[in-house]
Design brief:
Strand order of the largest sheet: 3-4-5
Helix content: 25-40%
Distance between the termini: 40 Å
């Protein structure tokens, strides 16, 4: 069987898994990819030699809605650093923006009111977890919410 037919067969048998494999590989290895600057451009490597190796490490997605996630957000796509998770958990595992003053995603300082805000997004809207003058309480509120989301997943 030709390599092209084999890939087509794998894509038919494991459509979600094969798509996750090819998308991650593109993000890390193709400078023309829209997301390359966030992955390959940051030095993140795709270490799986084949789809078979990828699938044997991570297995099939347990639920259609699960997404591929790197456990260590700065680590490579490699055995032991990838998993299937719900979107809510995957959204927690990302870098804070460059303008974030405290280094914790979902916590920001409002200069207009001189207060710290902890929040999360749900259905496109910000939901407030904390609003006050104590930075540490804002961080703690966000961390407690993240822990709650991980436990529910």
């Amino acid at each position: 069987m030709s390599e092209r037919k084999r890939r087509s067969k794998l894509a038919g048998l494991f459509p979600k898994e094969y798509r996750a494999y090819t998308d991650a590989k593109q993000r890390c290895t193709n400078p023309k990819s829209r997301s390359y600057h966030n992955y390959g451009g940051r030095g993140i490597q795709f270490k799986f030699e084949s789809f078979d190796a990828f699938l044997s490490d991570i297995g099939e997605s347990p639920v259609v809605t699960h997404e591929l996630d790197r456990i260590n957000n700065s680590g490579n796509y490699e055995a032991g650093n990838i998993r299937w998770v719900p979107r809510t958990v995957n959204l927690l595992n990302r870098r804070p923006s460059r303008v974030n003053q405290c280094g914790v995603f979902g916590v920001c300082y409002c200069t207009k009111h001189n207060k710290w805000k902890a929040y999360y997004r749900e259905n496109g809207n910000n939901k407030q977890l904390y609003w006050g003058t104590d930075k540490e309480l804002a961080i703690k509120a966000r961390q407690q919410w993240e822990q709650h989301v991980r436990e529910e997943a």
